[in-house]
Amino acid sequence: MSQFNQNAKWRYATKKYDATRKVSAADLATLKEAINLSASSYGLQPYKVIFVENPELRAQLQPASWGQTQIVDASHLVVFANELNLGNEQIDAYFENLTQTRGITLENVQGYVDFMKGAINNIPMEIRNVWTAKQTYIALSNLMNAAAELKIDTTPMEGFDPQQYNEILGLNDKNLNAAVVCAIGYRHAEDDTQHYAKVRKAENDLFVTL
């Protein structure tokens, strides 16, 4: 069995964290790099990733998260916030980064610039915002897989009120929206969930070959 699959078998959605254990700065750097290396549509990375360490902020976020203890007990709370109303400004910033990184001029990629702007600006804004929110889940997956390799536990969470998160974290003023959350840290010895058998569909029920 591959190491990747072994890691996937090891991880589970941790219900109770050991609040005394913290993820090291070195491991946090590794996780952040894994997030930054995530694939995204057009390579735009249309989101911000917020590591909430402040205990007072996390205490405010807990009631907006159905009271779940992972919000305050995990080492860190990671909020993936998608960009709203993405348009030419973000696209221009992406190509400025691209040309500097690759040492080329804008003229070399102007055709792609025009194509991308035409394709994205033609999408209705409501659908565009859904699209950027979906991109956060790819980055979330990279975080979870990298964490499992480091034997760091994770809990991906959709059980929260995005509007309250946006208000508490000041995201509205930044044109951002809390799309998905992930607690990271170390499982508590008393978390019985870690001993449960992993429940998945049988392969013949999941996979279709045409």
UniProtKB/TrEMBL annotation:
It comes from Flavobacterium stagni. It comes from the Bacteria. Gene3D superfamilies: NADH Oxidase. InterPro entries: NfsB-like, Nitroreductase, Nitroreductase-like. One of its GO terms (molecular function) is oxidoreductase activity. This is NAD(P)H-dependent oxidoreductase. Residues 9-186 form the Nitroreductase domain. Belongs to the nitroreductase family. Keywords: Flavoprotein, FMN, NADP, Oxidoreductase. Its cofactor is FMN.
